[in-house]
């Protein structure tokens, strides 16, 4: 199921990037700095995602009271990722990303 979620996420991002590429104008001169900022922020949020899922998994296994807090934190992280995608690729891409991302989050810790 994880593989299906990753494939779905990749397909959503690919379709969004293809749509925006065909309708956009040439990038402005500041594009390299914006791209670098996007990558740094994306790396940070994805790194946080990995740590949250690891801690949420440990809390689920041990039936800890912290599980609910990590679930909430994962939702916040997903919202931050969606906002970042929206700023870079637009609201349509962000919506597609959010749907795919939240679906795969459901498969990570049951």
Instruction: Give the helix level as a range of percent.
Output: over 70%
What's the number of domains? 1
Radius of gyration, in angstroms, nearest whole number: 16 Å
The end-to-end span amounts to 12 Å
- Largest beta-sheet details: none
Shape: elongated
H and E string: HHHH
Compute the number of helices.
4
Uncertain residue ranges? none
Q: Percent of residues in beta strands? A: under 5%
Rounded mean pLDDT is 82
Oligomer: single chain
User: What class do helices, strands and sheet pairing give?
Assistant: mainly alpha
Beta-strand segment tally: 0
Give structural notes:
- This protein is mainly alpha-helical and 110 residues long.
- It has one domain (2-23, 31-108).
- It is 85% helix and 0% strand.
- It is built from four helices and no strands.
- The protein has helices at residues 2-23, 31-61, 67-89, 91-108.
- The radius of gyration is 16 Å and the shape is elongated.
- The termini are close together.
- The mean pLDDT is 82.
């Amino acid at each position: 199921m994880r593989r299906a979620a990753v494939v779905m996420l990749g397909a959503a991002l690919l379709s969004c990037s293809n749509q925006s590429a065909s309708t956009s104008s040439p990038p402005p001169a500041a594009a390299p700095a914006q791209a670098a900022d996007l990558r740094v922020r994306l790396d940070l949020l994805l790194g946080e995602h990995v740590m949250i899922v690891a801690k949420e998994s440990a809390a689920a296994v041990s039936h800890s009271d912290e599980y609910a807090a990590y679930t909430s934190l994962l939702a916040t992280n997903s919202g931050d990722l969606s906002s970042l995608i929206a700023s870079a690729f637009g609201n349509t891409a962000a919506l597609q990303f959010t749907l795919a991302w939240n679906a795969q989050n459901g498969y990570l810790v049951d």
